């Protein structure tokens, strides 16, 4: 691991997206910024639309979307180290709940930092009382990474054993943001593949059984061709490794983004030769932003039935539990804290009480950045510790009871301002798009 550089920056940052910051900086680029999230604000704020489009073609390996997961390093390369909210990384913020004590075996955790070595993810998971965890196996924004050290590997294996984490079942690494398995350029495809397989090999060295990644971007090519390339790369990667299951994450975005529909995921899986080596992770924020409702019992049932019918639960391996700052079908990927977004607490109650999902890792990717007293941004991991306990408390809770309703209302009130702010942006963009359409300008084709 790149100790010095990764130590200075958080390995993961689920706070507000660069798109949102870019929008704050310039209102003239709202439409573009809402769908383009992987670029630093300076680029996203550029008014040269054509130039930006050309750049997207020139640097196609950057997979679109998932702003909620774009690390700070990508937004502010020269960002100063954040002040730590808590002085001691090892100080427990919550005790782990014995999963057997829950009415249903739900393994709730968060995407923790692996800065300084993969073994640190175990300590960081322990600290917040997580029963599952996600991590990056290497820097998610760089192509060149040193190999994993034997020391880090052994400490990871020892840490999991000592603390009773099953890496095979409940560790869910997240793939690099640079890798696009749909890449058609031979050199870039080879680079993406090499990084991908390297991650899978790291998984196998660490006894990790599931590997989550973003399917990719068509980069303007046809969807079937792009999906064919993803499957071909997966098939090769399966032959080069032995056990790890490659888990496709559903996406929020539109346009070139692959994986925002169950059909995309199904079409990739259809072409994978070894069906035991492929799975799906449902990110609740992405699903909702892509138009899959989960808010009421009925909506949840309909969405899950459509998943079962199209993809099948036999491929469902994991969840990313995130509320959404953006409304249903907005294609905006903005993670919100549990219960405070447009999804609301009931969606999460439905998930943690569904027997189908027993035993799966359920990983929070919710924002934990807070403004400190001195105005500096601080990471407050207590937020994850509390969200884990909140989600666990929902197991077996009566969703019509006073306790649930009070929690639901309180969290919705907390997020009201942020929801209204993003709703406003979405409305403005819709109005702008409608205007474009009525002028017969041949509105942008998304699918
Ligand atoms: Zn992701
Ligand atoms: Zn996710």
Automatic annotation (TrEMBL):
Compositionally biased residues, Basic and acidic residues: 418-436
Q: Where is the composition biased (Basic residues)?
A: 73-84
Q: Which UniProt keywords apply?
A: DNA damage, DNA repair, Hydrolase, Isomerase, Metal-binding, Zinc
Question: Per the UniProt entry, what is one GO biological process?
Answer: base-excision repair
Q: Which SMART domains match?
A: AP2Ec
| Low complexity composition bias: residue spans | 15-34, 42-52
Q: What are the start and end residues of every segment in region (Disordered)?
A: 1-91, 401-447
Short name of one Pfam family: AP_endonuc_2
* Cofactors: Zn(2+)
Q: Which GO terms describe its molecular function?
A: DNA binding; DNA-(apurinic or apyrimidinic site) endonuclease activity; isomerase activity; phosphoric diester hydrolase activity; zinc ion binding
- What SUPFAM superfamilies is this protein classified in? Xylose isomerase-like
Q: Which InterPro entries did the record assign?
A: AP_endonuc_2, AP_endonuc_F2_Zn_BS, Xyl_isomerase-like_sf, Xyl_isomerase-like_TIM-brl
Offer a single GO CC term for the protein: nucleus
The cross-references to PANTHER family, in alphabetical order and at most eight, read:
APURINIC-APYRIMIDINIC ENDONUCLEASE, ENDONUCLEASE IV ENDODEOXYRIBONUCLEASE IV
Instruction: Please state which protein family the record places this protein in.
Output: Belongs to the AP endonuclease 2 family.
UniProt-recorded name of the protein: Apurinic-apyrimidinic endonuclease 1
Q: Can you name the source organism?
A: Hirsutella rhossiliensis
């Amino acid at each position: 691991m790149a100790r010095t550089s990764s130590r200075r920056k958080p390995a993961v940052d689920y706070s507000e997206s660069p798109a949102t910051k870019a929008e704050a900086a310039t209102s003239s680029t709202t439409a573009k910024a809402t769908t383009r999230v992987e670029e630093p604000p300076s680029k996203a704020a550029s008014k040269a639309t054509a130039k930006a489009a050309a750049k997207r073609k020139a640097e196609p390996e950057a997979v679109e979307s998932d702003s909620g997961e774009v690390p700070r390093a990508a937004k502010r390369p020269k960002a100063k180290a954040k002040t730590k909210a808590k002085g001691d990384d090892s100080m427990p913020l919550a005790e782990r709940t014995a999963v057997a004590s829950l009415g249903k075996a739900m393994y709730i955790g968060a995407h923790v930092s692996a800065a300084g070595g993969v073994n640190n993810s175990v300590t960081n998971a322990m600290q917040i009382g997580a029963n599952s965890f996600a991590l990056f196996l290497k820097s998610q924004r760089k192509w060149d990474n040193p190999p994993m050290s034997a020391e880090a590997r052994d400490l990871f294996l020892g840490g999991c054993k000592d603390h009773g984490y099953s890496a095979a079942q409940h560790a869910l690494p997240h793939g690099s943001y640079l890798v696009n398995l749909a890449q058609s350029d031979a050199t870039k495809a080879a680079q993406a593949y090499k990084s991908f397989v390297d991650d899978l090999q790291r998984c196998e060295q660490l006894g990790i059984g599931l590997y989550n990644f973003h399917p990719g971007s068509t980069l303007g090519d046809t969807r079937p061709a792009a999906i064919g390339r993803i499957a071909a790369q997966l098939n090769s990667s399966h032959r080069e490794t032995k056990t790890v299951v490659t888990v496709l994450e559903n996406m929020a975005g539109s346009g070139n983004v692959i994986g925002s529909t169950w059909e995309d995921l199904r079409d990739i899986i259809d072409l994978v030769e070894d069906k035991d080596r492929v799975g799906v992770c449902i990110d609740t924020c992405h699903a909702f932003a892509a138009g899959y409702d989960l808010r009421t019992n009925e909506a949840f049932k309909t969405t899950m039935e459509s998943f079962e019918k199209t993809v099948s639960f036999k491929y469902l391996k994991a969840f990313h539990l995130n509320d959404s700052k953006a409304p249903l079908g907005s294609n905006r990927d903005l993670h919100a804290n549990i219960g405070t977004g447009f999804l609301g607490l009931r969606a999460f109650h439905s998930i943690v009480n569904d027997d189908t999902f027993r035993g799966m890792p359920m990983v929070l990717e919710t924002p934990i950045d807070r403004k400190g007293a001195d105005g500096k941004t601080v990471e407050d991991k207590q937020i994850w510790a509390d969200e884990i306990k909140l989600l666990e408390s929902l197991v077996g809770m009566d969703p019509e009871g006073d306790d649930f309703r009070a929690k639901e209302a309180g969290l919705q009130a907390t997020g009201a301002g942020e929801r209204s702010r993003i709703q406003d942006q979405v409305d403005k963009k819709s109005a702008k798009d409608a205007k474009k359409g009525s002028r017969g300008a041949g509105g942008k084709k998304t699918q």
